[in-house]
Amino acid sequence: xxxxxxKDLRIHFPSDDGLVKSVDGLSFRLERGKTLGxxxxxxxxxxxxxxxxxxxxxxxRAKISGEIWLDGEELVSASAEHVRTxxxxxMAMIFQDPLSAMHPFYxxxxxxxxxxxxxxxxxxKVARKHAIEMLDRVGIPQPDRRVDSHPHEFSGGMRQRxxxxxxxxCDPELLIADEPTTALDVTVQAQILDLMRDLQRDFNAAxxxxxxxLGVVAELSDDILVxxxxxxxxxxxxxxxxxxxxxxxxxGLLGSMPRLDRERTERLLPIKGSPPSLINVPSGCAxxxxxxxxxxxxxxxxxxxxxxxxxxxxHLVRCHLSRDVRRAVWENEIKPNLExx
Amino acid sequence: xxxxxxxxxxxxxxxxxxLPAGTIQxxxxxxxxxxxxxxxxxxxxxxxxxxxxxLIAIFAPVLVGWFGHPPNEFHQEMIDPSTMTPxxxxxxxxxxxxxxxxxxxxxxxxxxxxGARISLLIAFFATLLSVVIGTxxxxxxxxxxxxxxxxxxxxxxxxxxxxxxxxxxxxxxVLAQFETSLAVKGDTLRILLLIFVIGFxxxxxxxxxxxxxxxxxxxREFVDAARSLGARGPYILFREILPNLIAPVxxxxxxxxxxxxxxxxxxxxxxxxxPAPTATWGGMLSDAVKYYTVPHFMFFPGMAIFITVLAFNxxxxxxxxxxxxxxxx
Lengths: 341, 329
Prior knowledge:
Strand order of the largest sheet of chain B: 1-2
Domain ABC transporter (chain A): 4-254
CATH superfamily of chain B: MetI-like
Number of helices of chain B: 11
Structural class of chain B: mainly alpha
Strand content of chain A: 15-25%
Shape of chain B: elongated
Subcellular location (chain A): Cell membrane
CATH topology of chain B: MetI-like fold
Distance between the termini of chain A: 47 Å
Strand content of chain B: under 5%
Membrane topology (chain A): Peripheral membrane protein
Radius of gyration of chain A: 21 Å
Order of helices and strands of chain A: EEEHEEHEHHHHHEHEHEEHHHEEH
Structural class of chain A: alpha/beta
Strand order of the largest sheet of chain A: 6-7-8-3-9-10-12-11
Oligomer: heterodimer
Shape of chain A: globular
Helix content of chain B: 55-70%
Number of helices of chain A: 13
Helix content of chain A: 25-40%
Keywords (chain A): ATP-binding, Cell membrane, Membrane, Nucleotide-binding, Transport
Number of strands of chain A: 12
Largest sheet of chain B: 2 strands, antiparallel
Number of domains of chain B: 1
CATH architecture of chain B: Orthogonal Bundle
Largest interface: A-B, 61 and 36 residues
InterPro entries (chain A): AAA+_ATPase, ABC_Ni/Peptide_Import, ABC_transporter-like_ATP-bd, ABC_transporter-like_CS, Oligopep_ABC_C, P-loop_NTPase
Largest sheet of chain A: 8 strands, mixed
Number of strands of chain B: 2
């Protein structure tokens, strides 16, 4: 049985200007011990998806349809109270900015203790011992003293470690990390990513990493899902996405990413234009106004919504260009440019 | 954007700085605010005066016993019978520190001191009432949103649109008519009435502020983080949101007290406060209007109101700067 499976998940927000289709028909699967990277620009629906899996949109204004199966249970139709009992214990989240995600008034230890005591009926003493163990586990030095520090006394990296300790305190099987390293500086990012990989191995958790940073997913992910305007536009193994990407948007992301193996004199290639409005999504392929290759689809890119189709061995692409054209463009036009120096 | 990271980079753990334990003490936000407040001389001056005023109000009978005469004791011997004004203009002497009232020669010093009791008592409890109602309503409106929010917000608008002064005059006047049929009578009844009227009609000011704060706190990431760990609604309300409201509640309570002192004085001045002969600052001012030739009669209660309001405002401003340094300057 698949551990986590999304089937045609849709999360729409009614607004005064119209319906905001933040997530529009998203499906994927994830097994225990595996890591899925979800990549996309701001507003592509990455974070809304993660909050949706956790059920944090429930009771709000969001209209949610589709299915979320977690370990044999369907969550979209489950009661809000039942989903609450799963949060923390079965699934947990690491937030982008640990300074704003931790309560400024309480000590780090108190917050981890509270997280533990939500699901475990134990004394404060036991919870404190557990908190110290968790801080030790995420590599915070002198955890028995640091447990009584406030979040603002920690450095950014230590705070993110503490945040991870909090998320892991009830041993969740699904861990969602929303931009876990964006608020950190580059040297600390590497440490946090290493830590997350180690912890995932130890806890055998399924991990979803949400980021706009391909460097981060390259580091950790088994599979990668590229999102655009609330839809998956390319899905495949990390190797598929980095070695044989087939969607023009993915090429754009790769072209705009700085790489150590390229000459520094070379300019990065930004993707022209800006992300589309989620209220008036462009007709046909949502990416067509920004797509350099739209004219090669024979006009279909503006009229028909492309399907997410299998290219080869589980590698899915949502594009009107034929597979042969895509491969030819990648091999002849894109790849040489990325590798040239 | 980050370059693909070198996976072989060792996870370097920041080494402890090597300082002996206890050299650097962590400070909670409360301790930091207290340090800022202590550095603010003006606010601390205000705080000292506030504390003094409270002590004076509490120990008014003792102080009057030492330095004055009972507040309702007539001293006709101090009055010049031809003009009905104090002998020698003010009557100020070692015996009567602030002089005596015209007409009946009551000791202004002890009346000002006793007036502080009424003023502060009413201002404190009216503020407490406003703060309790305002905080509960504001938090409920902000936290639950939807139709609850709409209902409470409209109620606040209605309360704010009320012609409070006129209404208070009418209400207190009418209720006083039923004095004989009520369980409490005399000054106690009037004090309770004033506390109720002043407190009950001022809650929307603080309610609005708390509602706005709650709305923005509800969307903060630490609330999402607590929910993502399975926290229940009451936990989020009491443990995550309420502690963040302590600062605005404290600040606005401190700033509401002087407003209420003024309002009570205004009502007493207009004759619907505590009835004579009980000493109140507003009532003394009202009496003094008739004797503009004896300015000291107006000066002392006026100064008492002025100093009280100023001290609370200075302290409140300093408190706001200390608790929320981003709010001003």
